[in-house]
């Protein structure tokens, strides 16, 4: 059974911004609020914005309460998480999604918000992996921001990317699943863990040591999450770290050595992750991945 898609946004809809992870001030969010309003949306700033508990947007209780209130409010048609960092896994088990099916709504974010993307997919709902309000106006991010708008408003989102020497050719159809590699590993075995069999997995990360990327891929492979993939999209692995003695492989080479064990198509260089070019992907939406000698294409079915 396919994951359920919330209704596309329309002009006049009310949306909320919350902090489930790191803190964000109203001043930092002002430009994003103006952008959302220019899309015809009415913006509510949750109580977890403009407060701080160390690095978090309030303590766990406040952040949980704010997210719960926005989830339960039928007038709110989408929830944007202001920024990532760390914090969402601390509160996810205390969130009650029992009323979510009465009025499904879009949740959007990436990085630490992979937690929510995966948890919602586990419950059978689509969500958006895309740029967050604090990053709406980063230099070079106009296409990323427009892709988020198109995803929210139900517009077409075909993507094409150039050929990559590590690509694995082929064609596959399956629901999109994935996000931040370290979060996917963190969620393994929890109530937010998701199955990958028959799905198109996408991966990205930032600031990870090369050996740690390999270790996480070993873990994904040993737990069977690579074996029955329909396809794989390899996104940005930004600012990888290395030891004094070089690891000897790039992030893409590390990933490809595990993907090469299987026959599914692989597209390297997909613009998703911790860089300005971070195109929106609808987690749980069925898509077709085509990888040829000329390049790769991703289109929703």
Low-pLDDT stretches are none
Main sheet overview: 7 strands, mixed
Q: Could you say which overall geometry the principal axes of the C-alpha atoms support? A: globular
CATH superfamily of the largest domain: LD-carboxypeptidase A C-terminal domain-like
- What is the count of structural domains? 2
Strand order of the largest sheet: 6-13-12-7-8-9-10
Per DSSP, the total helix count is 8
What is the ordering of alpha helices and beta strands? EHEHEHEHEHEEHEHEHEEEE
CATH topology call of the largest domain: Glucose Oxidase, domain 1
The first-to-last residue Cα distance is 15 Å
Strand content: 15-25%
Radius of gyration: 18 Å
Provide the CATH architecture of the largest domain.
3-Layer(bba) Sandwich
Query: What structural class is derived from the secondary structure elements?
Result: alpha/beta
Mean pLDDT: 98
Please estimate the helix content.
25-40%
CATH class of the largest domain: Alpha Beta
Q: Count every beta strand, where a strand is a DSSP E run of 2 or more residues.
A: 13
Please give a structural write-up.
By secondary structure, the protein is α/β, with parallel strands linked by helices. It has two domains: 14-152, 3-Layer(aba) Sandwich (Rossmann fold), CATH 3.40.50; 159-300, Glucose Oxidase, domain 1, CATH 3.50.30.60. The chain has helices at 26-38, 60-72, 88-91, 114-123, 142-152, 181-187, 210-222, 251-259; strands spanning 14-18, 42-45, 76-81, 106-109, 127-129, 159-162, 170-180, 200-206, 231-238, 266-268, 281-283, 286-292, 295-300. Helix 7 packs parallel to helix 8. Pfam families: Peptidase_S66, Peptidase_S66C. Residues 15-130 form the LD-carboxypeptidase N-terminal domain. Residues 173-289 form the LD-carboxypeptidase C-terminal domain. It comes from Hymenobacter lutimineralis.
């Amino acid at each position: 059974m396919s994951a359920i898609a919330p209704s596309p946004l329309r002009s006049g809809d009310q949306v909320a911004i919350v902090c489930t992870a790191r803190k964000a001030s109203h001043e930092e969010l002002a430009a994003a609020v103006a952008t959302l309003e220019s899309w015809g949306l009415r913006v509510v700033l949750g109580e977890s914005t403009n407060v701080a508990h160390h690095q978090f947007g309030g303590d766990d209780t406040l952040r949980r309460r704010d997210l719960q209130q926005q989830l339960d409010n039928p007038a709110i048609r989408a929830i944007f998480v202001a920024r990532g960092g760390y914090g969402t896994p601390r509160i996810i088990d205390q969130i009650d999604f029992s009323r979510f099916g009465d009025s499904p709504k879009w949740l959007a974010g990436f990085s630490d918000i992979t937690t929510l993307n995966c948890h919602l997919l586990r419950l059978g709902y689509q969500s958006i992996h895309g740029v967050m309000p604090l990053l709406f106006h980063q230099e070079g991010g106009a296409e990323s921001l427009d892709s988020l708008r198109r995803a929210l408003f139900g517009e077409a989102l075909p993507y094409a990317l150039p050929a990559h020497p590590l690509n694995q050719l082929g064609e596959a159809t399956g629901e999109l699943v994935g996000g931040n590699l370290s979060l996917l590993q963190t969620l393994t075995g929890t109530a937010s863990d998701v199955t990958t069999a028959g799905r198109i997995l996408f991966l990205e990360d930032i600031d990870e040591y090369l050996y740690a990327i390999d270790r996480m891929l070993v873990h994904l492979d040993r737990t069977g999450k690579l074996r029955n993939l329909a396809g794989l999209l390899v996104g940005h692995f930004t600012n990888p770290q290395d030891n004094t003695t070089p690891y000897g492989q790039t992030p893409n080479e590390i990933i490809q050595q595990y993907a090469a064990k299987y026959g599914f198509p692989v597209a390297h260089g997909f613009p998703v992750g911790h860089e300005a070019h971070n195109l929106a992907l609808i987690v749980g939406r069925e898509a077709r991945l085509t990888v040829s000698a000329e390049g790769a294409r991703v289109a929703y079915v």
